[in-house]
Amino acid sequence: MADQTIGSARVGDSDIELTRMAKFLVWASMVSVLFVNQIAYNIGQFPAALDLPCYALITAYLLASGYAKVSMPILQLFVAVIAMAAFRIPLLPTTTQASWSSLVLLAAGYASFAVRLSPRSGLSAIQQYILDAYVTTACIIAAVGTIQIVAVNATRLKELQNIYFVLPEAIRGAGTYVFAREAGGGLAKANGYFLRESAELSSVTALAFLAEYFDKRRPFRLFVLAMGLAASISGSGVIALAAGFLLPKSVGRIPIALATACGAMLLLYALYSLDNPVLNLWFGRLTEFGTPGSSAYARFVAPWEMVQRTFNDGIAATWFGNGPGSFFRMLAEFRSRYEISDPTWAKLIYEYGLAGFIFVTLIVIIRLYSSSLRVELCNFMLFSWLVFPSVLKPTTFLIMWLVTLAPARRNAPPPRHSPMVQRSV
After folding, report:
1. CA torsion sign, 139 to 142 to 146 to 147?
2. Are 58 and 41 in contact (CB under 8 A)?
3. Cβ-contact 405, 127 below 8 angstroms
4. Among 177, 245, 172, 171, CA closest to 206
């Protein structure tokens, strides 16, 4: 039997397989996101890591192969956002600290969302390969996190808390992060050693758990991922995991989703009533939502105060924002007594206004739900992207872009001939 190799894929009668180069780029992207994203050459305050070059290489490889398609709705929304922000910056007051570099990073992150594989039969193999690569790398980082939580709490060595502390300063990624956090009783949380924070380990393992659960359900991998999620002692992944399971898969399933959510709330209340010391590590954090200065308050409550400032600054600021990169630059003027995080919804509304928030969110929604990815995983990623600080993180948009490369199957045409075709036996 003869197969065909087309730029980035080998076409048979039913499935398409990635070439060696494409497989290398997929694995390089996973490794750049999960293992070496703190190794970077710092250009000012911007850490130039390997994730963005991998992102650009895969996009260029797909376009050069001739088997990539550009989504016009996404491209039009993207151009509208960039143009709106570019025209807005010169019109801002001189006191507003907008940043062209922040706009460039947004453009670099979401320009490729308009690029994906052209619809054709047999793309399920590519979808499967990319998800398997992600689950495998997430399992490794989960195992590292499980070992780390034991080692760190036993030795209290700073060098075991995060790779950041052992990297030479010349290649240490810039940025302000809480590299080591503690739960109740002084228990140090795991962050997977290579990731910056425990919340990242929580989100990475939760997404991989969901992907594995709805695909092959290999018990050992599910166990390893669950252990990594537990070692993070972070609610980020648990909340997103609940969203993946409970958010409706279609409009007609909204009543069922509401009933399921109510059942889940009752179950959580029953577990909370047990007053189990282990479970209280997570349930005890619910009080943080009303405690200024706590992690939950900084992530979910304090950002609303920043957004309210935008609504009070007039119609122009409300609809078109205060300029790219202005969120954190204005915190000094705000003089908050506690930490304020930058979740996607707050950062986009503050910097790009309601119009920018709507357009960028539509780009992500179209990209996710027009792909062949399961709806549960789409719900997980949309929720995580909106609620957590994800809008300018290559860790988030690169993985989101990769796992949605294959479009939804809607009477896909058969593979076409290309001058890049090579015969192999």
Report:
1. positive
2. no
3. yes
4. 245
pLDDT of the chain, 425 residues: tens digit per residue? 224 443 444 444 455 778 888 899 999 999 999 998 888 877 766 677 888 889 999 999 988 888 888 999 999 999 999 999 999 988 887 666 788 888 998 999 999 999 999 888 778 888 999 999 999 999 999 999 999 999 999 988 888 888 888 888 878 876 666 666 776 667 888 899 999 888 899 999 999 999 999 999 999 999 999 999 999 988 889 889 988 888 877 766 667 767 776 777 787 667 767 777 766 666 655 655 655 656 667 777 778 877 887 788 888 889 998 889 888 777 666 655 556 678 899 999 999 999 999 999 999 999 999 999 999 999 999 999 999 888 888 888 999 999 999 998 754 444 443 333 333 32
Could you tell me the CA-to-CA distances from 173 to 40, 43, 75, 328 in Å, in that order?
5, 10, 31, 18
Provide the whole-model pTM.
Answer: 0.83
Residue for token pair 């789409």: 378
Scanning the structure block, which residue is given the tokens 């060595």? 157
CA distance 6 to 416: 10
SS3 of residue 275 by DSSP: coil
CA distance 68 to 117: 4
Provide the pairing of β-strand 41-43 with 46-48. antiparallel
Using an 8 Å Cβ cutoff, are 279 and 235 in contact?
Answer: no
Amino acid identity for residue 405 in this structure: L
